Amino acid sequence: MSIVNSFFSNTTTRRGVGAIVGFVIIWYFGAMVDDWTGYDVLGIGLVPPPGDVFTAFLGVIPKAGYWMSWVSSFSRVLTGFLVAMLIGIPFGLLLAVNRYFRGVFFPPFEILRPIPPLAWVPASLIFWPTNEMSIAFVTFLGAFFTIVINVLGGARSIDISYLRAAQSMGASQFDLFWKIILPGTLPSIFTGAAVGMGITWEVVLAAEMISGGGTQGGGGLGFFIWNSYMGGSLEQIVVGMISIGIAGYLCSSAIRKIGFYFMPWRRLF
Amino acid sequence: MAGKSHKKEQTGALSIKNVTKIYDPSGVNVKAVDDCSMEIAAGEVCMIVGPSGCGKTTLLNAIAGFHSITEGSIHLDGDLLCGPGKPKAEQSAERMVVFQHGALFPWKTLQENVAYGPTVQSAMSAGEAMEKAGQMLAEAGLGQFIKKYPGEVSSGMARRAEIVRALINDPKVLLLDEPYRAMDALTKQIMHESLLETYDRTGVTIFFITHDLEEAIFLGDKVHVVTTRPCQLKKTVEVRIPRPRSFETQSSEEFRTLLEEVNEAVHEEAVKAFQAGEREMA
Fold it and tell me: Which CATH number fits domain B14-94+171-281: 3.40.50.300, 1.10.287.130, 1.10.579.10, 3.10.410.10?
């Protein structure tokens, strides 16, 4: 009881819950107008009302296939995202601190960067041995470029006074890198991660739809939506969309939490 | 008199001889400092006053080892910092800078910031450094704030902590580049008193850039007025007001007379700088 009380006594929580309820009400009226008046509201007139979607949601919850879609999309996003972080952060830092490395790798990087991740889908379906690997690869690309650009920008915009102060105090190159440049870049790393995570979800969904993940790749939320579309289930399409919204929200909250843990000084802002 | 010190021997005498600095970005020669000479005795508080953008910071950067000089030489206690054949001084903890906009590391607490120098120099163990840092911050009146991040304290406190971070390295010279620029008059007054108190305790040589004339006279043993770009020494005013000084000093007859004298020299340069600025814009 006290948990419920404290939950609703928090102004931010109350506002958030209120906004979601308000949105559902608008959705309800928008979807019902054609039933009541016979006129469609452009754009949302044919959208199933929230009640029907809720029923469809209850319908898929006990099904293992639905949860397998979550699992496979999540594992693709996380694989691509983590590999992008593992390679992208050191790569971006090296671009920032080493002139020779930048001279060699920045030009090809800049030529590859504008290519949208989805443009890589056909090529990677051909070049990678399995569908699963090609989807993971495209997901990786989605996050990689954003992470690198953020890390590079962040590291290069560190206030030069910090570097000068540290050097005057006797910091070695090693100290400068680990104690000044790395913590100074952390906020940009997390910005890059948050944006990159968003792109990852976009990419994985599209890749799943295109590759028809069902045969080899094993579904995923993108395929779930596509499948519902092919089957003509409007309610399930919306269920899939809301699932992705929830999944994305979980991922970005996780990144925020981790960011707070690694950057205690940013809690003040 | 000047430089009342508790150190065994006085160090930190700076000798700036005929220093010229020409910036040459893409072939456009900009002379920032032109044949500038000044002698700063060990343990002296030397105030550099001049119009904005006149090349004062260039001089400070040369002493700190951030920039090279084109001609002339700078010596510290008789040792060459930079000069013919060695255009750029090495950066060293014997010359610590307190920056205009503040350069405490935002990701370290005040205590960790202060402990940074001795730790990277391996002069103390991490534990010792933290303990010493805590002590020194407490002496500076920041005892309750040592666990705070720079973003959590006022700009005055942050600046005070930054001076402590410099002093823990036991520098010969403290280089301050308009450290109190953005502060209101009341905070400034408190910062001045605390800096003077620190100076009376350590006797470190202070090279202080400002364009606040009252600040210059209140803090300094000597006030060097420099010309607008290129920076040259125009006039040196000696401040013989005895230490320790308190804020009442500022209403004394002597203080007012000195202020007029400095003001006269600076005003001329400020007008020149302003007009030069106008021409550049037109």
Answer: 3.40.50.300
Sorted by where each begins, the domain ranges of chain A are 1-47, 48-264
Establish, for the pair of chains A and B, how many residue pairs have beta carbons separated by less than 8 Å: 67
- Name residues 87-106 of chain B within 8 A of A (Cβ): 91-93, 95-97, 99, 101-103, 105-106
* Beta-carbon separation of B99 and A165 below 8 A: yes
* Cα–chain center distance at B54: 16
Q: H-type helices in B152-210, by residue range?
A: 155-167, 185-202
Residues on chain A touching B92 (C-beta within 8 angstroms): 168, 170
Which ipTM value was assigned to this complex?
Answer: 0.85
Instruction: Answer whether B107 touches A (CB < 8 Å).
Output: yes
Mutation target among A159, A160, A169 for the B interface, most CBs of B within 10 A: A169
Digit-coded pLDDT (tens) for B31-90? 888 888 898 888 899 999 887 777 888 889 899 989 888 888 888 888 888 888 888 888
Superfamily of domain A48-264: MetI-like (1.10.3720.10)
Q: What digits encode the pLDDT tens for the residues B186-216?
A: 888 888 888 888 888 888 899 999 888 888 8
Looking at residue A181, the DSSP 8-state letter turns out to be I
Phi, psi of B81 (to 5 degrees): -90, -50
Distance CA A253, CA A265 (A): 18
3-class DSSP assignment, residue B81: strand
Q: What digits encode the pLDDT tens for the residues A97-124? A: 999 999 999 999 999 999 998 888 888 8
